[in-house]
Amino acid sequence: MTVPHAQVVGWIEEFASTVAENREYLTQLDSAIGDGDHGINMDRGMKAVLGKLEGLEGDDVGGLLKTVGMTLVSSVGGAGGPLYGTLFLQMGTATAGKSELEPEDWAAALDGAVDGVQMRGKAEVGDKTMIDALVPARDAFRSALADGASFAEALNRSAGAAEEGMQSTIPLVARKGRASYLGERSAGHQDPGATSSYMLLKTAAETWSGGA
Amino acid sequence: MTVPHAQVVGWIEEFASTVAENREYLTQLDSAIGDGDHGINMDRGMKAVLGKLEGLEGDDVGGLLKTVGMTLVSSVGGAGGPLYGTLFLQMGTATAGKSELEPEDWAAALDGAVDGVQMRGKAEVGDKTMIDALVPARDAFRSALADGASFAEALNRSAGAAEEGMQSTIPLVARKGRASYLGERSAGHQDPGATSSYMLLKTAAETWSGGA
Amino acid sequence: MKKLINKPDDVVTEALQGMAAAHPDLLRVSFGPNYIVRADAPVQGKVALVSGGGSGHEPMHGGFVGMGMLDAACPGDVFTSPTPDQMIEATKAVDGGAGVVHIVKNYTGDVMNFEMAAELARGEGIEVEAVVIDDDVAVQDSLYTAGRRGVGTTVLAEKICGAAAEEKQSLQQVAELCRRVNVNGRSMGMALTSCIVPAAGTPTFQLGEDEIEIGIGIHGEPGRERRKLAPASEIVESLATPVVEDLPYEEGDQVLAFVNGMGGTPAIELYIVYNELHKLLEERGIKIARNLIGSYITSLEMAGTSITLLKLDDELTRLWDAPVRTPGLRWGA
Amino acid sequence: MKKLINKPDDVVTEALQGMAAAHPDLLRVSFGPNYIVRADAPVQGKVALVSGGGSGHEPMHGGFVGMGMLDAACPGDVFTSPTPDQMIEATKAVDGGAGVVHIVKNYTGDVMNFEMAAELARGEGIEVEAVVIDDDVAVQDSLYTAGRRGVGTTVLAEKICGAAAEEKQSLQQVAELCRRVNVNGRSMGMALTSCIVPAAGTPTFQLGEDEIEIGIGIHGEPGRERRKLAPASEIVESLATPVVEDLPYEEGDQVLAFVNGMGGTPAIELYIVYNELHKLLEERGIKIARNLIGSYITSLEMAGTSITLLKLDDELTRLWDAPVRTPGLRWGA
Ligand SMILES: Nc1ncnc2c1ncn2[C@@H]1O[C@H](COP(=O)(O)OP(=O)(O)O)[C@@H](O)[C@H]1O
Ligand SMILES: Nc1ncnc2c1ncn2[C@@H]1O[C@H](COP(=O)(O)OP(=O)(O)O)[C@@H](O)[C@H]1O
Ligand SMILES: [Mg+2]
Ligand SMILES: [Mg+2]
Ligand SMILES: [Mg+2]
Ligand SMILES: [Mg+2]
Q1: Catalytic residue (one of D23, D61, D219, D278)
Q2: What is the interface pTM, i.e. ipTM, of the complex?
Q3: Annotated catalytic, C57?
Q4: Residue C32 — pLDDT band, cuts 50, 70, 90?
Q5: D17 in contact with ligand 1, CB cutoff 6 A
Q6: Global pTM?
Q7: Which ligand is nearest to the CA of A44?
Q8: CATH 3.20.20.10 applies to domain D14-184
Q9: From C29's CA, which of A36, A67, B40, D75 has a CA 20 to 30 Å away?
Q10: Domain carrying residue A142
Q11: Contact indicator for A81, A72 with CB cutoff of 8 Å
Q12: Contact D83/A75, CB-based, under 8 Å?
């Protein structure tokens, strides 16, 4: 299995509609420990991305992902904008020139995503951020490949790891982002950014493998 | 029957305690068509008067009433201050030098009260103000005396007329004071100032004649 | 009731103590009777301006004491006109020999107390001219009633007359000017929420989650009409139309547009209101030559706005632009 | 939700249109991307100051654009940091050849977006120095966290650095000064009520009739602690004590005391707060040499207050006193 350009577009569209459906949910999570706008911000950004996709030509996956990143940077704002923007920009760099993705390309894209978010936000696993979903997802994808799993199977294990990572944020005290201002009061709530990152990985698995 | 200086003091004290008891009630009436402070204002003023009474010497009823008036002027503010202040100042002028009040003295005091309030406020009967209680009270007192009624009886008829006058304000549209800004919306509410004026006459009747 | 106060009865006194502590360079506060005078009062040979009214409208009037505006302010209890003894003491403290103008908002209480004070002051040989501001078009005007309330134009009159007094205009000139500002100013206000008088502890009126009051005064008194909540564009239309049509302002007129917050409304909303007002006046060919946007004449923490228009001429514009240095309004100094 | 707005999505745009209509003498507004620059930008040879952040804090930052303060402000969506394209456009529009200082409040979003903008600007050959303000003592500081939020000191830094830039101090000097203001400023805030983000339509947090939040930020985020409503004296004590003890301010120090309203709190309450703060500092032998009392850094219509203290020296005092002419802060001009 490889993932052609059109399916990458499909994934982005699917992520956009998942974010739109979960706009209230993400915002609610952010109200508890942040400023109640994560769903609103991501939805505004992904709607802008959908608008950009329409006019897009060619089949360069890297170019596509960079466009997504640039659009998020200039339409989301807040923490989500630079973080998701950098995530997609780095994914785009990792996949520049490809018209379809091999498993190894996606592994490189996930490396770029994690590195980009960490370069921007300087968060480690356990800080109660997106990173808590992204790092396990990247690691699970690579080790699934090492175990000889199929691309589809690896995507599913990656999404499962993201889900666990997302859930692992619940008891944590936030050390990065707005939630960190709450100190101990941030414990007991699921991180909104980790939740949207799980959605990102889950929609990739669903769109490309049919599984979840 | 005549009313000695000590009983005039008793009336003022009784009026003060009636106002204190009805502080919320008067304020509530004023909330409906004014700014919700008539009870608060009158209570502050009458408490100040009580403080002044303590140090007062001599038996000049006129001097006593003028002191009450001056104290109200400088402690009540709003419309109530100048109106009740002038009322008592004019009552004091009408009874200057008296150590006790004959029926005729009280008639003159009521004349002074009405004239003073009208000079200050320029309201007529029917404007939905204190005047709607005070004018009938003055007129009823004089005509009771003309009918040969006792001082006590005349005081009771005066208080009764004030009560009717107070009630007559309910359907009226206010033409003076703060309630006039409401236009038609002021109809259907009893005027707070007419209510406190009724209390003034009622406490006089109660303190001096035992009746009501 | 949620307020940053200690005891409800101490609100006025403690706010005045705060004023005194904050602005010794601009003003002095006297207690018992309460009044505020500018730090350098009395200014010899200058007409003095005294205003006053209930507290709860801050920065008006105490926050407008200082160079180029008021010489003294008499703060009453919350929403209750001050008493004549405050006014007479303030008048004596600022009289610099050129006479004193009392700027009085048209409320029965304010008018009567200032009347008594003026009688007493004149008895002591001080020349006093009283000017009554009655600019609120929400109130039907009539010979047989108390007439219109004084609202937003008061702020503009205090600024403009303060500048004229600073120029050493005469008592008659300053009083005449004040009447001219009043005649050329019109206002109307609305509330999104009621306010709570500290001594009362509960809202003066109850408004539903989707209701507003149109045509309110500044004392938490209900307005002339209760309506459903509406977009800012409609609200501005309801306020500005009666204002514009009352004077009437004409095409080509230059105006000062004053968008006022009632105390609980933030600047971001006032600019949305201003934006609507600007469009509305542009359509009518009325030019906003000057503006003032902010919470200058308030009703405690009430959310809402009022709109005031003042028809300008060259003299009014020049006096508006003149330097002013008070806690509440300051420029050029 | 009761607000003077039209559609929730249009709040920021329409408020900006209102600013543009109201203050053409002071500033110009660009739309798409949104930013505000002073009317005479770029000022050749002067270091330019750019700030920005989410909207809903008005007058900060847009209301501080003008002579003696900011050269540009980038308004984001309500409570959402602006984007790098706004910042880069604003930076280019105000660069007068002497470099640009970015004044950034320490929120992850603001910091990251300004970082991206600075990288891009430097790529285009503009010298940019970024200074992060992190003065909120309600947040525990730590190497491993995002650190403290930037709040009230931001207003003071923008004023003081604006004056230094006006004096033609160099990029390094202005940036250094800004860091010095930050190091000498401390703040803490509280809320009586929540605010409502227009796009959300409901209060960000729920507070009971007898509850307050201590240690809030400026985005409607809950504070560090929920408490029972208390008298102003106790509230001021809870805010000012951690502020004073953090620096620490010492006996004999001169400070600028900034009592800020959160948007829904009227001036009368702020003066009661100031009165308590004045007494508290007097007891500790700290002298208030300058003060600022009003709603300058707000959270929409939130009721509440924040207290900021800035330790002064002669230079900071001189720069504070220098003329400033913006919609939100003005004196000496
Ligand atoms: N330094 C960081 N590194 C990685 N992720 C972060 C960091 N700071 C915040 N986040 C993520 O951003 C999310 C909040 O995003 P959003 O609500 O859009 O921005 P804001 O906090 O500016 O309102 C958090 O839930 C968290 O996962
Ligand atoms: N011009 C007037 N003449 C007589 N009584 C008046 C006049 N104006 C107002 N009043 C009386 O004053 C009362 C209100 O007094 P109060 O609430 O103490 O003053 P304010 O209206 O200043 O708050 C009214 O109920 C009315 O009876
Ligand atoms: Mg958020
Ligand atoms: Mg009243
Ligand atoms: Mg009153
Ligand atoms: Mg945000």
Answers
A1: D219
A2: 0.92
A3: yes
A4: very high
A5: no
A6: 0.94
A7: 1
A8: no
A9: B40
A10: 3-209
A11: yes
A12: yes
